[in-house]
Design brief:
CATH architecture of the largest domain: 3-Layer(aba) Sandwich
Number of strands: 13
Mean pLDDT: 97
Helix content: 10-25%
Order of helices and strands: EHEHHHEEHEEHEEEEEEE
Radius of gyration: 19 Å
Bound molecules: zinc ion
Shape: globular
CATH class of the largest domain: Alpha Beta
Strand content: 25-35%
Low-confidence stretches: none
Number of domains: 2
């Protein structure tokens, strides 16, 4: 990325993820909280899904953070469902998604019920988001990098309306609730992104020496054991695995436990890989998506 002129900080893309909602509300009411942090860029705040925020629910009609693929945005008829309409509106205001977008960077703040700390999700190998996130893993002992590569036009996430984005997933926090310690750490983290964007615009961040980072790259989502698609789940996350996000899971390790107490072991991957690093373990919002956890591969890189 060259210069970062326009930044959007968003909360409430999922209405019951209250850390981002309350952070945006606080900053809207007290602009001095953020306006001096990145004077070289215009910083805007938005409640991405105000209707879901009002309801304190993830969404009203449809998961809005799955509505920003180019295909979804391009449908010619006016959509019936609220979130598809709102996604188009956000795309008109901050996009349009693609090379001509008005927005250089979106920082979209989410919560997870999983034990993921401050998870920085990068959807592309963008030089600013990589460098800034690497710096933040040095400054915050529970910051982690999850790399979820996806062709940008196909990606359904709000952040992909901008040239670059970080989806900031904060946990563990029950949806619909708040945790003061997590709120304060999140605010500090988002402030640092703004300061680092300013450092980038001064040409200084680029000059920092390479930083070794642990990168957790998306491999695949893993569903719950079921007799058939749509059937009720037949097992729970194994107690030995619960809360152990980012830890290595080896072939033969305990994965699920059935309701009558039998252990189901991890069998490795079809390609012969015998180790993975699960995240989003037991995320409540993913039960409806039939995702028990996301499997990643860990590597160490210099960013
Ligand atoms: Zn979310």
């Amino acid at each position: 990325m060259s210069l970062i002129d326009n930044i959007v900080v968003s909360g409430g893309t999922h209405g019951n993820e209250r850390t981002g909602v309350c952070l945006v509300k606080k900053w809207m009411e007290n602009p001095t909280c953020y306006e001096s942090l990145c004077k070289s860029a215009r910083v805007e705040l938005v409640f991405a899904n105000p209707e879901a925020v009002r309801l304190n629910r993830r969404y009203r009609d449809f998961d809005m953070n799955r509505a920003f693929s180019q295909t979804c945005l391009d449908v010619s008829a006016e959509p019936q469902q609220y979130e598809f309409r709102r996604a188009r509106e956000l795309n008109r205001i901050y996009g349009p998604k693609g090379p001509d977008t008005k927005t250089d960077l979106i920082l979209d703040v989410h919560n997870t019920g999983s034990n993921m700390g401050l998870c920085l999700i990068l959807s592309a190998r963008d030089p600013f988001t990589m460098k800034a996130s690497a710096v933040l893993t040095q400054e915050f002992d529970d910051a982690w990098i999850y790399y979820q590569p996806e062709e940008r036009s196909a990606s359904p996430y709000f952040g992909t309306v901008a040239k670059a984005d970080v989806c900031i997933e904060i946990g563990p926090q029950q949806h619909g609730t708040l945790d003061a310690r997590l709120f304060e750490r999140t605010e500090k983290l988002v402030k640092r992104y703004l300061e680092l964007a300013d450092e980038w615009n001064r040409g200084e961040l680029q000059k920092r020496p390479p930083i070794p980072v642990k990168v957790y790259t998306q491999l695949r989502d893993l569903g719950y054991p079921k007799a058939w698609t749509g059937a009720p789940i037949e097992a729970m996350i194994h107690p030995d695995l619960l809360g152990r996000d980012y830890r290595e899971l080896r072939k033969g390790d305990k994965l699920f436990r059935t309701f009558d107490g039998k252990d189901i072991l991890y069998e490795g991957e079809a390609d012969g890989r015998e180790s993975v690093w699960p995240i989003f373990i037991n995320e409540p919002a993913y039960y409806e998506k039939d995702i028990a956890m996301s499997l990643t591969v860990k590597s160490v890189e210099m960013w």
